[in-house]
Automatic annotation (TrEMBL), chain A:
It comes from the Eukaryota. The lineage of its organism: Eukaryota, Fungi, Dikarya, Ascomycota, Saccharomycotina. GO terms for molecular function: structural constituent of ribosome. This is 37S ribosomal protein MRP2, mitochondrial. It holds the Pfam family Ribosomal_S14. GO terms for cellular component: mitochondrial small ribosomal subunit. GO terms for biological process: translation. Belongs to the universal ribosomal protein uS14 family. It comes from Pichia sorbitophila (strain ATCC MYA-4447 / BCRC 22081 / CBS 7064 / NBRC 10061 / NRRL Y-12695). Keywords: Ribonucleoprotein, Ribosomal protein.
UniProtKB/TrEMBL annotation, chain B:
It comes from the Eukaryota. It is found in: Mitochondrion. InterPro entries: Ribosomal_mS33. Its main location: mitochondrion. Belongs to the mitochondrion-specific ribosomal protein mS33 family. It comes from Pichia sorbitophila (strain ATCC MYA-4447 / BCRC 22081 / CBS 7064 / NBRC 10061 / NRRL Y-12695). This is Small ribosomal subunit protein mS33. Keywords: Mitochondrion, Ribonucleoprotein, Ribosomal protein. GO terms for cellular component: mitochondrion; ribonucleoprotein complex; ribosome. It holds the Pfam family MRP-S33.
From TrEMBL, chain C:
The keyword Ribonucleoprotein applies. GO terms for cellular component: ribonucleoprotein complex; ribosome. Belongs to the universal ribosomal protein uS10 family. Residues 107-204 form the Small ribosomal subunit protein uS10 domain. GO terms for biological process: translation. The lineage of its organism: Eukaryota, Fungi, Dikarya, Ascomycota, Saccharomycotina. Residues 36-54 have a biased composition (Basic and acidic residues). Residues 20-54 are annotated as: Disordered. The keyword Ribonucleoprotein applies. GO terms for molecular function: structural constituent of ribosome. It holds the Pfam family Ribosomal_S10. The gene is Piso0_002655. This is Piso0_002655 protein. PANTHER family: 30S RIBOSOMAL PROTEIN S10 FAMILY MEMBER. It comes from Pichia sorbitophila (strain ATCC MYA-4447 / BCRC 22081 / CBS 7064 / NBRC 10061 / NRRL Y-12695) (Hybrid yeast).
């Protein structure tokens, strides 16, 4: 069975894993691997003191990089359910997963607020 | 200490500021030209992103315990429950459909 | 109550977030995976052997034991002696050593969700400072930060009914004055060794240098490059690597170059 992504990586063991989470993890790893190149190209494209041709070339190279290396493709998913919407970043949990655990007292420091 | 009768000219003051930024190693961009330095200044965020779903080495999992203590014949209750549910669904003819062969 | 129990469905219980500090902070072993039971047993045995050696070394020396007591009259019936002074002082607030010059040397901030644990950690640090003769301030309260999380109750629609959760971060701070850098290092390493789970420690240390700092830096030789004594038994891999690098030939060559040859 060939690995379903171009580059092999370890599947996360301590989070809920589904196809979308795998895709997101792959994107994260690819971003981390290509971050330096991307940052360099971004710098060349954004620096107004460089000649226009250099900036254009950098922009073209940036767009020609595979889309799974882009930072904007990465989405913080819920670590318990794999859901992508309403994720509270402090806990990496979806709002329903957060509420279940908070009410059960499983999140340290979190209590029902009333004031 | 003598008191200045009038302040030095703006050009002179700018020279001072430029020199002081050279000495103390800070940036000097009086006209706020966009030179992309903010991209170079920002710290790399790759490692933090990769560890979002947890570091695999940080804690052992049930599979690790099964590998370390085969003689104990450990049974993961969560996995056992999941497998039981799948089998029950298959019995009721509700199992997952066959994968399409191209 | 949760809907799952109401519907009487058997679902596996929710996993809680782990806050067990030693597990979270311990670095993975060299082979990359978490240490197996054999490795862990070997490590534990090695630790025990070291501790036994330490105990032996103490017992062999002639140790004069003249304990001080605060309340000599209250004798414990089982041990037939009063409470030692340091144990008795635990009942009272930490004592303070008076400042000699008032130069701030270190500031520790203790942050956490549990007030009692924070107070424990702060009082421990303050008492350790007293015994090390470091002038310390009184334990000060930091502003508690409150984060509010408002969440829709239902898993689907019904956005009109929400629920509020909060998380309060309490804080305490301790300021240390007038101690030498070595003493402060010992104090901080002692606190770090007996750090309490669930408390976040942030320290800033500040020292004054003379104006000929750069000349003194140039005159440093490779023999001066070593970690402080209090860091001798540290198990941080970065610290070990620093030590290795400082002893390596390239660094020695670079450090022993005279300023004219730079």
């Amino acid at each position: 069975m060939p690995f379903r992504f171009p580059v092999k990586f370890d599947i996360p063991k301590h989070a809920y894993v589904n196809a979308r989470v795998l895709r997101d993890q792959f994107k994260r790893i690819q971003y981390a691997d290509n971050e330096v190149t991307r940052n360099a190209l971004r710098y060349l494209a954004r620096n107004t003191e460089l000649p226009a041709k250099v900036r254009l070339e950098a922009q073209l190279q940036l767009t020609s990089m595979p889309k799974y290396t882009s930072y904007s493709q990465i989405k913080n998913r819920c670590v318990a359910t794999g859901h992508a919407r309403s994720v509270i970043s402090d806990f990496k949990l979806n709002r329903t997963a957060f509420r279940e655990r908070a009410r059960a007292g499983l999140i340290p420091g979190v209590t029902k607020a009333s004031w | 200490m003598s008191i200045l009768k009038k302040l030095p000219s703006k050009a002179r003051l700018e020279q001072v500021k430029k020199l002081s930024s050279e000495i103390f190693g800070s940036t000097w961009n009086p006209n706020n030209i966009r030179n992309g330095s903010k991209i170079l200044r920002a710290p790399l965020k790759g490692p933090e992103l990769v560890n979002y779903y947890g570091v695999n080495d940080s804690m052992p999992t049930f599979q690790d315990f099964k590998k370390w203590f085969p003689e104990l014949k450990l049974v993961d209750p969560r996995e056992a429950y999941r497998v039981k549910m799948v089998e029950d669904r298959k019995k009721r003819n509700k199992g997952a459909p066959k994968k399409k062969k191209e | 109550m949760l809907c799952r129990t109401r519907l009487m469905i058997h679902v596996a219980p929710l996993r809680s977030l782990s806050t067990f500090r030693p597990l979270l902070n311990s670095p993975p072993s060299q082979n990359g995976a978490h240490s197996s039971p054999e490795e862990f047993k070997a490590q534990a045995e090695e630790k025990k052997r070291e501790e036994d050696r330490f105990h032996q070394s103490i017992l062999q020396g002639d140790v004069e034991y003249e304990p001080k007591y605060l309340s000599e009259d209250k004798v414990n019936p089982i041990s037939r002696r009063p409470l030692p002074l340091n144990v008795e002082l635990l009942k009272y607030k930490p004592l303070q050593v008076p400042k000699t010059h008032g130069h701030q040397v270190a500031k520790i901030e203790f942050k956490g969700f549990d007030r009692t644990e924070l107070l424990r950690a702060a009082e421990f640090a303050a008492r350790a400072a007293y015994y090390l003769n470091i002038p310390c301030s009184r334990i000060a309260n930091l502003k508690t930060e409150r984060r509010l999380y408002t969440v829709i109750r239902s898993p689907f629609a019904q956005a009109k009914s929400k629920e509020n959760f909060q998380r309060r971060m309490f804080g305490l701070s301790l300021t240390a004055f007038d101690a030498t850098s070595e003493v402060v290092d010992i104090w901080l390493s002692y606190i770090n060794r007996h750090a309490i789970d669930g408390v976040q420690y942030n320290t800033t240390t500040s020292f004054r240098e003379s104006l000929d700092f750069s000349e003194r830096l140039d005159k440093l030789a490779s023999t001066d490059m070593k970690l402080p004594e209090s860091f001798k038994d540290i198990d941080d891999p970065i610290a070990n690597r620093i030590e290795e690098l400082l002893k390596s030939d390239t660094f020695k060559k670079l450090l022993d170059e005279t300023p004219e040859n730079h």
